[in-house]
Amino acid sequence: MILNTEALTAKPDKLGRYAPALFLLAALLPEYVAPVFTAAVFFIVLRRRIAERKKPSFGAIGMAILIYMAWMVVCSVYSSSFISSFASVGLWCLMFTGYYTFTETVKTQEQIERIFLCGGLSAGAAGAIGVAQMVVYHLCLRTGSNIHKLFNPFWRFLDIAVEKLVVFLPDFISSNMASKTFHTFSTRACSTFSNPLFFATFCVSMLPFAAYIFLCSKSVKRQIIGFGCCLAAIGGVALSYSRGPYLFAVIVFALLFLYGGKKCLKLIALGGVGFCAIVIFADGIFKRVLTLISGRDLSVNTRKSVWDAAFKMLHERPIFGYGTGFDNVRQTMHNVYNVKQPHAHNIFLEAWLENGVLGALLLAAIFIVFFINAFRLYRRKGRTRDYAVTLFASVTGFLLCGMTDCVFYGLKPLQYMMMIFGLSQAVFSLYLSKSEAENEHTVNK
């Protein structure tokens, strides 16, 4: 039997440039521009694939996502807010375009390497902006200036213009919005994100890509760049003053030791330098952590109230939930339990409340499919094992952040989750299918 390696050695077409660009730029663009950029790229890719009459290949992860989205549509039938249901389903469909772009255009190891590089650079750039915001904030405290309020979030000056346009929206749309203004967090780094928690989630989940550049690049120049990106991402998490992501970043950092070998020594050095750098802002970070045990911490008490209300709501509708859409949960929490929060602060709890127990299970199935394939890839040696560790640590970071916040409430966190899943499926399709083909060739030799 002759092994057909055409799919494995195919040269990337010009569409291969889009996935790295998306991975690099989406985090740096405004929240309301990044999804449009992703959708534009999707239509370019889709147009080419239609012209080629090529059927889409979603892979196991993609099919799991599509099944969950189909259940979201079913649960929209009994939703009390059609607009909210339409917005939620539409948001997932929009972000799935990023998944499609990656699975359709990432076909070679060279492309994978380029995307990993762009992911690390994106984490470094966003982290550096967050660190700069806090440096400017502390300088403004000394000088009495208020300039820091204009650039935290980084796109605040554009947010102001968008807020003025929101007032022209029809009432049936604006009444379903949790807020008509963007929040400002002048004392916590947001970087280019609308919320410090979303920024911290991004840094935690993208730190493994920066670590990959530092640990796995053959070029010394790239290793130095990767080291700087790691420090910037770590600094971004620290200065977001988000206590949950503090712990999750440590867990993700520990998972990176799965690289093994001399890379572990480099990680220890990176951790030491990162810790020394964080000491510069140690007073504010330490005080923020201490509030956890004070019993008066607003975030902790808010989550307790939210989760108490959420479990009471589940007791009322445990099977089918309240219907797709954040507004269904928000209105019940507001009007019945007097909890003024827009969501359940946990991705699985939110999925259960909206889409019932089956919705929570289908969401969990997406991650289970990913972890099974990541484990299969990790069993192989060499570069593919490094890919497996990076992707595993990244998705784990995202999942952990979703335990204390509903990260799907943010456009860019969901967007990056879809892109990382798309990248993962592309890697699995390339290397796991290659392994199976090689095994079959060996058996039939």
Helix content: over 70%
Q: How do the SSEs run, as a string of H and E?
A: HHHHHHHHHHHHHHHHHH
Separation of the first and last Cα atoms: 7 Å
Shape: globular
Number of strands: 0
Estimate the mean pLDDT confidence.
Answer: 87
Number of self-contained structural domains? 1
Alpha-beta content class: mainly alpha
Stretches where pLDDT is under 50 for at least 5 consecutive residues are 1-12, 439-445
Multimer state? single chain
Structural descriptors:
445 residues; 18 helices; disordered N terminus; disordered C terminus; mainly alpha
Account of the 3D structure:
With 445 residues, the protein is mainly α. The chain has one domain (12-443). 70% of the residues lie in helices and 0% in strands. It has 18 helices and no strands. The protein has helices at residues 6-9, 18-25, 34-51, 59-75, 82-105, 109-143, 156-166, 171-174, 196-216, 220-239, 243-255, 263-278, 282-290, 298-316, 326-335, 347-378, 383-401, 411-443. Helix 6 (109-143) packs across helix 10, helix 11 runs antiparallel to helix 17 and helix 16 (347-378) packs antiparallel against helix 17 (383-401). The longest helix is centred in the N-terminal third of the chain and has 35 residues, at 109-143. The radius of gyration is 22 Å and the shape is globular. Residues 1-12 and 439-445 have low confidence and may be disordered.
